[in-house]
Amino acid sequence: MLTLNVSHINHHSFILTGIPGMPEKNPWMAFPLGLLYTLTLLGNCTILSIIKMDRSLHEPMYYFLSILALSDVGLSMSTLPSMLSIFWFNAPEIPFDACITQMFFIHGFGVVESGVLVSMAFDRFVAIRDPLRYASVLTSGVIGKIGLGVIARTVCVVFPVPFLIKRLPFCSSNVLSHSYCLHQDAMRLACASIRVNILYGLITVICTLGLDALIILFSYMLILKTVLGIASWAERLKAFNTCLSHICAALLFYVPLIGVTMAHRFGKHLSPIVHTLMANVYLLLPPVLNPIIYSIKTKQIRKRIVQLFIRRKGRT
Predict the structure, then answer these.
(1) What is the mean predicted confidence (pLDDT) over 115-141?
(2) Is the pLDDT of residue 3 over 50?
(3) Could you tell me which residues are beta bridge partners of residue 14?
(4) Sorting pLDDT into bands at 50, 70 and 90, what band is 23?
(5) DSSP-assigned letter for residue 28
(6) Residue 58 lies inside a defined structural domain of this protein
(7) What is the 3-state secondary structure (H, E, C) of 238-292?
(8) What residues contact residue 313 under an 8 Å CB cut-off, 6+ apart?
(9) 80, 37 in Cβ contact below 8 A?
């Protein structure tokens, strides 16, 4: 009878984890996290404002970069509330509905970012393979349709996730492994079969992030073939240099993602701190480093940033 009653208990909140096994060290993370979020907002908002103000940057490549910056800001803002509540205010409890909402936005912005990286690979492919038709192929209308397609795919893929979690009973532990809510983390605490959740998550990852990575890889195989067909070494380097920023951004997104996936699948023997570190790297570093990469590697943006700082310095 006691077992029957316990099986009907369902938690109304989850407990988020800061530094596993060392909760007393949580306050030490407050300043670094605050710095990371500040750099994320400052860097991405600077990129967005420069592209908006400079009409010479109103080109397909920079439109996609704007969408990437917006998705980075959205991803950071999705993790910010729970991170601050743990490391700044020592309040690890999060309501069930708030956890599901955060889960939706974290996974959603992750799929959006992956879709944008695919779009940027297509942009580079057209620019290098057929530069004369670049402006006519990637018109504003086409870019808008690509953006809507990325958002529509994200909504269709991520929309079922909250319902898949909400149908599960949680009658034992309610302590999550991370400082934010993830589908694969929450479903492991359920007291019922999670086969549907596992299957849906696997299909989703393969059909979105996995397929996107393959498309990007195939695009760069075609780009490399085109670049190697250019006679001049100087022109080859110039063409390939236009892809470096996107290559770095793609590696920064997919390499930690693969690491987190492998750790969840095969690294059960690893320390919880390793899992937490890898998950935080996957979610926190790309939004911080993407603006830096594009500022350093993209001449036009670097030039505008230097001009912006010189102008402000002159005013003071």
Answers:
(1) 91
(2) no
(3) 94
(4) low
(5) G
(6) yes
(7) HHHHCCHHHHHHHHHHHHHHHHHHHHHHHCCCCCHHHHHHHHHHHHHHHHHHHHH
(8) none
(9) yes
Query: The tokens of 253 are what?
Result: 């997104």
**Selection from 116, 122, 135 nearest residue 67 by Cα:** 116
The reported pTM is 0.89
Distance CA 39, CA 35 (A): 6
SS3 171: coil
CA 22 to chain centroid, in Å, comes to: 27
Residue 160 CB contacts under 8 Å (≥ 6 apart), including other chains: 200
Per the CB < 8 A criterion, the answer to whether 212 and 115 are in contact is yes
DSSP string across 72-138: HHHHHHHHHHHHHHHHTT---EEEHHHHHHHHHHHHHHHHHHHHHHHHHHHHHHHHHH-GGGHHHHS
Q: Is 74 domain-assigned?
A: yes
Smallest CA-to-CA distance from 83 within 291, 249, 287 is with 287
* Residue pair 163/200 in contact by the 8 Å Cβ criterion: no
User: Does any domain span residue 19?
Assistant: no
pLDDT of residue 111: 95
Residue 25: other Cβ atoms inside 10 A:
11
- Nearest residue to 249 via CA among 141, 129, 123: 123
Domain with 120 in it: 24-309
Structure token digits, residue 88: 């700044």
Q: Is the dihedral of CA 16, 21, 22, 24 positive or negative?
A: positive
In a domain, 51, yes or no: yes
Total number of domains in the chain:
1
Residues 65-91 as b/e (b if ≥16 CB within 10 A, e otherwise) read: bbbbbbbbbbbbebbbebbbbbbeeee
* CATH, residue 201: 1.20.1070.10
